[in-house]
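Input (Bifunctional diguanylate cyclase/phosphodiesterase):
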Amino acid sequence: MVMFSGASIGLSNRIATVALYGTLLLYLAIGVSLESLRRQINHQAELEAGRQVVHNISLLHDQVRQFARDYNNWGDVYQAIIDKDFEFVSNNYGITAVNGDMFDRAVIYDGLLKDPLAWNSTGTRAPHQSSLSIWALEQIRLGVDRLPREGRATFDFAILKDGEVQFGSASRILPDTEEALATANRDEASIGAILRTVTNAQLTDIATSSNVTDLRLSNSLRNPAIATPLIGVDGRPIAYLDWIPPHPGNELLSHIAPIIALIFIVLGGVGIGGARLLRDHANTLALREDDANRLARSDPLTGLPNRLALKEYIERLESTGINNYAVILLDINNFKKVNDLAGHQGGDELIKTFGNNLRAATDKQVFVSRVGGDEFIAVVNTSGDIIELSRCTVDRFMQATGVCFNYRGLQFPITSSYGIAARKDATRSFEDLLGDADRAMYASKKDDGNHVTVYDAELDAEYTFRRKIEEALRLAIRSPDEFYMLYQPIVNARTMELHSVEALARWNCASLGPIAPDVFISVAEKSGLIVQLGSLLLKKIFCDMQCRPDLRFNINISPLQLLSSGFIPTLTRLLGEHSISPSRIEIELTEGVLVSNCDTVQAQLKQLRQMGITTALDDFGTGFSSIGYLQKMPLDTLKIDRSFVSGLGDDKVLANVLHSIVSLGRTLGKSITAEGVETLYEAEILADVGCHYLQGYLFSRPQPLDQILKAAGNGHSLTGEPCAQQLRRALAS
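Output:
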């Protein structure tokens, strides 16, 4: 038996004690280190999640602020409130709240208004009593009054309604032009407040994208460090948004707990394994963060960079001193047609295919992003010729995307419109370039097929000129004497007697001189003035109709005017005010209106027919109309375009085509009018093939109504004109 001395036992005990304490200290150091790591990871995750929540909430409020800036700086609404034209205010301002697509509550009060006007998404277009309390309205007024008088700032706030938070933004409703703003009385201007509900779905989306859970409204804070207050109209918090932050450190510790146990048993080997696990988990967290950042900056449908990624790319580009870049804005032509025929799923498939084709045609000098709908933005940068590189890029895009899209047996030829704007100096911001590219793209949309337009001085001058036309048009509508009507006769193809006249609008602008009809009508449509202009022109035509109660009038109507909800009521009212029989009117429409909003157009045409008004399809043969559309739509007359009439004497194929068109129209039971008749020979052929009526310079250029009636004579006959006499003799023979 071996006996240990007391000294040996003491030494062993001391060694054991030292080893024990050393092991305990090592265990403690490991434990403290792990706990510190857990807390640090959790803390960083809490901070990042909090920043994401606050950022996403701010984006929702920014949208409301932008809507308020747009709607509260609207000259027509400002003037309508002064004129007490509350119907206009409801139809243009309140309707957006009723529809609920951009905001769901709107209140206009103060200024010249005795009582507030309010609308919400559960109400009707007619304004109702405001659900905001008198105290809330007063607090909003105080907030608006504290805003700087210069500029167009807004007062932002939040309110609680039925347990839900609504973000609001308010300001005085003012003219949109700086000239009109300079003379506006801000103290008499009404206050417009726009509110939008933050839905539970939006809170869920924010929680998901911010990697938090249980994001909710609360009056009591679970943790003040991870909550954000919602400031009410009086500047005090009305509630708080709080949430449960992610705890990746806890997850990490739970994963390595078994490893820690092994470390306590076998320090050396398990220590190495633990270090590897720590490294692996850190890498996993980094990958998750990278994935979150990628998802936040990627379009979910195409995988292309989104608007946030585009913004950051431009910031990086400009921060490195690169100013030589161009913006290419593009969208898919007739995308709505694909959605209508193939459904939204088919539209999504087209967007995916289109995005993949764009990505395949992109090189390292091109950054492509999808910013919404069927709209894409590409940024091109180079040290060389930026316009040339942009055109080459567009050529590649056209080749890659210009393919036929097949979806469940449906085939769609795909074309795109492109606008290019180059940054020529550092004073031009990205937003400026985007606006230029947008205008260039819409210039490309004037024609079908793949087209590209580079924004240049000529296009800039055209844009500036159209802005001047728009400003002049707004003034002219208030003083309608600048507008007048000319008329062109439509005659019976056999008897040459006057059948009707087509009303043609003219504008002699006081500041710009005569403006072509196609120009000012286009500006009116794009600026939202077409309904007002159309009503003004109808009044002038009806006044002329009163002077000749036995004559029919053809009236051209803009598609936007026809599709407006107030068209039929306005037309009915004006007919009654002027004592005009509806049977004396034929309304002319272009072919394009039949394709877009088909059901709405059909309903409007049926109402017109019930009133006794006939309708004509203008410029027939040049657009998209099919036999199916012609059978479906309650049309009475087809007006054959001038392109089928010109050159009849030299082109036998054209004559055969014309004969087929007339035969088709007569088979469908339509009256046929030929436009652009300039020669006796054309008139004779058109009468022979079966046209009922003729119109063109052969009979008269557009001129005042009294001159046409004087030429026609009391019997509505054009036999006083030599050309008509020759034609009558030719037809008689």
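Residues 1-5, 719-723 have pLDDT under 50 and may be disordered.
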